[in-house]
Design a protein that fits this description.
mainly alpha, about 45% helix, elongated
Length: about 70
């Protein structure tokens, strides 16, 4: 598992549907925060729930292809 420190700042391009980006921009303006801050807080709030989702390679009842190369 890779962890990033709070001071590690890496430039990364992210692509959002236009309507979603507008909502994020509106919320950032409302809170007088950056888009980056809003997305980082959203991830911290949602990550435990998102980690419950199976990966694209995980299907119930099937073998994991990574275990038998």
């Amino acid at each position: 598992m890779c962890t990033m420190s709070g001071s590690d700042k890496r430039k990364q391009s992210l692509y959002f549907p236009e309507d979603m980006l507008k909502e994020i921009q509106d919320e950032a303006a409302r809170q007088d925060r950056s888009l980056s801050w809003i997305v980082q807080k959203a991830w911290k709030i949602a990550r435990k729930e998102i980690m419950k989702y199976p990966s694209v390679n995980e299907f119930p009842g099937e073998d994991d292809p990574r275990e038998n190369p």
